[in-house]
Amino acid sequence: MNAVGHHSGTSTVSRRAIIPLLRRLRSAEGTANPRPVWAALHELGDIVPAPWGGYFVVGFDACDEVLRGRKWQSTDFAWQQRQGNPERWSDLATREMTRTLPRLNAPAHTCQRRAVGTPFDRASLEALRPMIAALVSSLLDALEAEIKAEGHADFMRIVGEQLPALSVGEWIGIDRADHAHLLDFTHRQVYAQELLPTRSQLAISEQATLEMREFFTTLIRERRARPGDDALTRWIAHFDALCEDRATADRTLYDLTMFVTIASLETSAVLLGNTVHLATSDPARAAWLAAHPEHIASTVEETLRWDAPISINSRVASEDLVLAGVPIPRDTTVHVMYGAAAHDPRRNPEPDTFDPLRRGGHLAFGGGLHYCLGAGLARLEAQELLGQVLKRFPTLRAVTPPVFDDTRLVFRRLVSLDVQI
Ligand code: HEM
Question: What is the 3-state secondary structure (H, E, C) of the chain?
Fold first, then answer.
């Protein structure tokens, strides 16, 4: 999703000013609590020059403008070719990701997005609710069993990581026996979507990409042979009818199925872990929420505002533009900072106060043409989970602070959340 190119531009802030802040954001301290860094970024302005050229976009309105504006485009293959550093984009994992939905512009993006339709509209979500509720209930059984046996348990391993895999697995039709492998290669593949991946990170990503290819091409081949009642079966019928040849259909089906699946896993897991942790870390808040389940949905929204699972995303100016008063030449990359934007005090006063009744604004699911396809499903999972946790384990608390992966800048990963009841 992210891209760093070579550009020029003007702003009163030095291109080096952000370097120590980026270092802090990627430290153990910064990943555990990025809010002080976001506050420091807001001090520097709405948009802050990036050391390699281009800009980080920090202000809420400026981020919103980029995401919704048709003149800001995804960093697709055509943009990569115009850069002076082809080696940056030549590795297998990066090339694979550049074929996926968030990196496509019209008309390829429109074609894939149409094929998926709106799978999580209000009616579909209501139909899914009993299935999600049953999945949550069985995962909480497993959590309870381990806590009873051990005194504590890792919420992320038993519930947070499993629920998104089970939900998307039901929708696309992925066998439960494959979920561990799916989660494993998703965690490794994600480095190719980081801002400045190292060579060794790209090598990890490449190996994961090969495993991902094998997994999804086999899945598609087998589903074509044995259709079911699932989204993948419907996409196969759609693209087989639309594409001129089977190879094109297969390639598009792979890009779509692979991306939709991996896009739903880590992101939702972070939301689930954060929602339960933030709602229960203060006993008074947990008790109030248990008595007022009507505020569960807004607690989930405040969690998304508090800590956006995807922190940064890139776009490129398709012509000379002006953003927050700064001229942005054509082809310049801007990195939209979702987390920092939601902590813009002009949009959300006292941004570092977690307030489920705030009704504040956030951009955690993006905006515009690339707005997250699975936002409804992620919200449903988090709401159902929190409702059941509060009812069933009114005294659930974290034993130690949550642990975040500090090898990433873009994709937040909540590695573990040790809890007791
Ligand atoms: C809390 C959970 C999630 C978060 C925070 C999240 C966040 C995002 C964001 C920020 C984007 C926009 C990317 C861009 O503008 O380039 C996006 C796109 C996307 N998301 Fe999600 N997502 C989540 C869950 C899901 C789930 C559950 C699914 C699938 C069931 C999903 C599928 C997608 C897809 C396919 C896109 C690409 C849309 C496009 O480019 O047209 N996401 N997501």
Answer: CCCCCCCCCCCCCCCCCCHHHHHHHCCHHHHHCCHHHHHHHHHHCCEEECCCCCEEECCHHHHHHHHHCCCEECCCHHHHHHCCCHHHHCCHHHHHHHCCHHHCCCCHHHHHHHHHCCCCCHHHHHHHHHHHHHHHHHHHHHHHHHHHHHCCEEHHHHHHCHHHHHHHHHHHCCCHHHHHHHHHHHHHHHHHHCCCCCHHHHHHHHHHHHHHHHHHHHHHHHHHHCCCCCHHHHHHHHHHHHCCCHHHHHHHHHHHHHHHHHHHHHHHHHHHHHHHHHHHCCHHHHHHHHHCHHHHHHHHHHHHHHCCCECEEEEEECCCEEECCEEECCCCEEEEEHHHHCCCCCCCCCCCCCCCCCCCCCCCCCCHHHCCCCHHHHHHHHHHHHHHHHHHCCCCEECCCCEECCCCCCECCEEECEEEC
